[in-house]
Design goal:
The chain has 636 residues and is mainly alpha-helical. The protein contains 23 helices and four strands. It folds into two domains: 25-76 and 113-312, no CATH class; 392-635, no CATH class.
């Protein structure tokens, strides 16, 4: 509506009054590629003849240098112009013209793929156990491409790529391989590790052949993030997490830090970009904790809205949910994923506060404690909204359940719960994960103050229980057979280094405290899970992770500290905590966690060395039945 000037006459508002700065400049290309630049970029001057689209299209993100490469390093270029380098020329032609597949090169990527029934099982495992925790893709879109790919793969020769999804979206192939590789780590059977390693080895070449990271697309960035996210190892944080900085910069170059609605993108594209960005922000927080460094990105520098809680099938089809029953359109896994991102944002706030204020006082802690408590209430509301209990088990309840599972002193008084179906296991794992994240926030807040004896003396009584609770909940999550498909995250990616270090330090400083025995019991149980690679492993895992130098160094240091503390307290560090001192077993006395380690890992070793086993699995059971049967077998 026109405004009136002081004289009362109608006039149109001045551009000086209504004008606003553009959010930036986004160029979309075929095959899911895009390039973004801020309005401060030198070429954003609206000069006629200055072809900004062409500049952004042809400007590589990384220098084309020769040298060794892997998933995090750009590939080497050939000095021979007749040799295909895999770096596409995006200046002209269609997406297919820009990709140098070549029959031989394509065959090398397709030949190692397992048969379709195996890929179907790996894809289903990914959907059940990876996607809920790393939600990047719009599943119906990917499933449609998956079906189209196999329709072509089973009926046409590899050379006839013109009829394939790879013609329109070449980046589908590296994402497919990353999805299948990720799915393999959730299947704890002898064949899955071999198949997974073979698939993981294909990812660098699949990314290279479509020009990543020089000319990234949405799917190629997803493939890169997915392949590396499942390989995070907290003890080797610098080497295993360096990809986060690269991925964040690539995402920025594609405009993921600006919400898709600012550029009028379609709802599905907008949602996929939100999912990628928020997962990267979450990784930035988690890896900065592991590395002990400030976060790379500040949330104040992005406008990307949080991920939607809507079921994938309804995205772009429902414009308003105001009049709809929430249960009809909401997807619990996205509700809980948004909760995890909300929690990691709170962790980021705590880290920034601690890192920016070196002279923080006891009074400064109280507002942060209030923020964490507010977070706990918000997460509880999320759990309630999807029909999950917001009640977190007490420390004693968790300890009782751990005792039941390992045959403790009073185990005859309890009945072990029946195995969970896949859907129920996911719900309870997500529930525990949100509780664990809240406790982690307290641990992050309190740990720096241990160096100040005066402040710690005031904090200890309310701080220490959080570290003990974290270890107890960690043990429950990593030793429950029903949660085995999720053990790639805990203890696979993240391990309880900080709580162990804090409790060991506290035991050394307070050897006669009333909570000494509980801390010792929890620490012993954690150390009993150390596997042959020098890091914690879940009981019965088939995943043969590569030997990690950082992991061995970190846990060796902690073990030496434990040995010293146990010696000072008058205990033998070579014996694990014995809950079952009255056991009549004829074998040598052993702690319950020692029994887990010895029994399960020796059984795994015997099966894992059976090289005569088939490379691929038997026909698949329905998923809920499969996990229940697997858990029941583990319990026997």
């Amino acid at each position: 509506m026109p405004r009136k000037n002081k004289s009362g006459s109608d006039r149109s508002p001045s551009p000086l009054e209504t004008g606003k700065l553009k959010p930036g400049y986004l160029v979309l290309h075929s095959g899911g590629r895009s390039r973004y630049t801020e309005s401060t970029f030198w070429a954003c001057v609206d000069a006629e003849g200055l072809e900004l689209d062409r500049i952004l299209r042809n400007l590589p993100l990384f220098p084309k240098t020769s040298g060794p490469h892997d998933l995090g390093t750009p590939p080497a270029l050939s000095d021979n112009p007749a040799v295909t380098t895999g770096i596409p020329d995006l200046s002209t032609g269609t997406s297919q013209d820009r990709i140098s597949w070549g029959p031989t090169r394509l065959a090398k990527l397709l030949q190692p793929l397992p048969p379709k029934p195996v890929c179907d099982r790996l894809f289903r495992a990914f959907m059940d156990y990876i996607h809920p925790l790393i939600p990047l893709m719009h599943i119906p879109s990917f499933e449609s491409a998956y079906d189209e790919f196999w329709s072509w793969r089973l009926t046409r020769p590899a050379q006839d790529i013109s009829q394939s999804i790879l013609h329109r979206n070449p980046s589908f192939l590296p994402l497919l391989i990353s999805v299948l590789s990720a799915g393999s780590i959730t299947i704890h059977e002898p064949w899955s590790d071999r198949v997974g390693q073979k698939l993981h080895g294909l990812i660098p070449e699949a990314l290279r052949v479509i020009g990543f990271p020089y000319y990234p697309s949405v799917y190629s960035l997803m493939a890169y993030i997915l392949a590396n996210s499942t390989m995070i190892r907290e003890e080797d944080a610098f080497s295993s997490c360096s990809f986060v900085a690269v991925a964040l910069r690539i995402a920025q170059s594609m405009g993921f830090h600006r919400d898709g609605t600012e550029f009028e993108l379609d709802p599905i594209s907008t949602e996929e970009r939100r999912r990628v960005w928020w997962h990267l922000m979450h990784l930035d927080t988690m890896t900065s904790i592991a590395q002990g460094l400030p976060g790379i990105m500040s949330s104040s520098r992005c406008t990307t809205q949080v991920i939607s809680e809507m079921q994938d099938e309804f995205i772009g089809k429902i414009k308003s949910t105001d009049l709809l029953d929430r249960d009809l359109w909401v997807d619990p896994k996205y509700v809980l994923a948004a909760g995890r991102y909300e929690a990691s944002a709170q962790l980021r706030t705590i880290l920034e506060r601690l890192q920016e204020a070196p002279n923080i006082t006891l009074a400064d802690i109280v507002p942060l404690e209030t923020q964490i408590e507010d977070l706990r209430r918000r997460l509880a509301h999320r759990l309630d909204s999807v029909g999950l209990s917001a009640h977190s088990a007490s420390l004693q309840e968790i300890l009782d359940q751990l005792s039941v599972r390992v045959g403790g002193q009073n185990s005859t008084d309890y009945r072990s719960p029946p195995p969970l179906t896949a859907s129920k296991a996911l719900q309870q794992w997500n529930q525990a994960l949100l509780h664990l994240t809240t406790v982690k926030a307290y641990c992050i807040l309190y740990q720096p103050f241990m160096s100040d004896k005066e402040i710690w003396a005031n904090l200890r009584s309310r701080a220490l229980p959080h570290f003990q609770y974290f270890l107890a909940l960690f043990l429950e999550m990593t030793t429950n057979p029903s949660y085995r498909p999720f053990h790639w995250l805990y203890p696979g990616s993240y391990q309880p280094l900080q709580p162990c270090a804090v409790l060991l330090s506290d035991l050394s400083a307070h050897p006669h405290s009333s909570d000494k025995m509980l801390s010792m019991q929890l620490i012993d149980r954690v150390f009993s899970l150390l596997g042959p690679t020098g890091r914690l492993v879940s009981p019965g895992s088939y995943q043969s992770l590569p030997s990690l130098t950082g992991a061995k160094q970190v846990w060796t240091v902690l073990e030496r500290l434990r040995a010293k503390v146990w010696h000072d307290l008058g205990y033998d560090h070579t014996l694990f905590w014995a809950e079952n001192e009255k056991d009549d077993d004829a074998s040598a006395p052993r702690g319950s966690m020692d029994f887990w380690l010895t029994g399960n890992l020796s059984e795994h070793s015997a099966e894992g060395n059976d090289t005569s086993a088939s490379s691929y699995p038997a026909p698949v059971l329905q998923n809920d039945e499969a996990i229940a049967e697997s858990a029941a077998h583990s319990a026997r």
